[in-house]
Amino acid sequence: MVSQHDAAAQRYAPPTAEVADLVEAAQPLAGRGRRFAGALIDTVILLLLWWLVGVLTPLKLYSPQMATAGVTTLMGYGFVGLLLFAATNGWLLAHRGQTVAKMLLGMRIVRRDGSAADLPRLLGLRYGVGALISLLPVVGMVYSLADGLMIFRADRRCIHDMIAGTIVVKT
Fold first, then answer.
1. Residue 11: inside a domain, yes or no?
2. Which residues partner with 93 through β-bridges?
3. Full domain range(s) for residue 116
4. Which helix (H) or strand (E) segment is 37 a member of?
5. How many CB atoms neighbour CB 160 within 10 A?
6. CA pair distance 124, 130, nearest whole angstrom
7. How many CB atoms lie within 10 A of CB 52?
8. Which of the ends of the chain has fewer CB neighbours closer than 10 A, N or C?
9. What is the pLDDT of residues 115-159, one digit of tens each?
10. Counted domains in the chain
11. Distant-in-sequence, close-in-space partners of 156: CB < 8 Å, separation ≥ 6
């Protein structure tokens, strides 16, 4: 027979069920320096595309009026940036889990269990959510800084990786 004191103590005891952690991919994680270089390369590619759009279309992305553009205009240009990113990297992301830079540097984005990440997860969660948050005044700057600094965690997962449930591995 269990005493009333023992029953009360058991009520507040930690659970005894075994909880298995998610199995991480068998491939080694990509290094921080390699991921940083990849982010720089992808950014340079997008900046060059922005420049081409500014030169070849009526969108005057580098005009003095951009300094006084409203939030709606800036968000519209942010959407154009997402479209450029998707046009540049969409096929590689859908079929190989890579951006142009990740392909050049031997990296790939996968789910935490090592399986392929689908395109909606990559474009919507991994890149889209962060891009939308980055458009917000002040909050976007804090998010972008925190997202980049998260690479120094032991599992090397940034906020965008946690949102999408992904990791970046060596190929």
1. no
2. none
3. 27-170
4. helix 32-56
5. 21
6. 9
7. 12
8. N
9. 999 999 999 999 989 988 987 889 999 999 999 999 999 999 999
10. 1
11. 29, 30, 32, 35, 167, 168
pLDDT for 2 equals 60
Cβ atoms 83, 67 nearer than 8 A: no
Q: Is residue 20 in a domain?
A: no
Q: Is residue 18 part of a domain?
A: no
Kindly give, in sequence order, each residue whose CB lies less than 8 Å from that of residue 61, ignoring residues fewer than 6 positions away: 50, 51, 53, 54, 77
| pLDDT mean across residues, the chain | 86
Task: Considering only CA atoms, give the Rg of the chain.
Answer: 22
pLDDT of 168: 97
Cα atoms in the Cβ-side hemisphere of radius 13 Å centred on 48: 7
Could you tell me which residue, 59 or 100, shows the higher pLDDT?
A: 100
Furthest-apart CA atoms within the chain: distance in Å: 84
User: Residue 94 and residue 15: Cα distance in Å, rounded?
Assistant: 41
Within a domain: 135:
yes
Query: How does pLDDT run across 57-82, given as a tens digit for each residue?
Result: 887 666 676 667 676 776 677 778 88
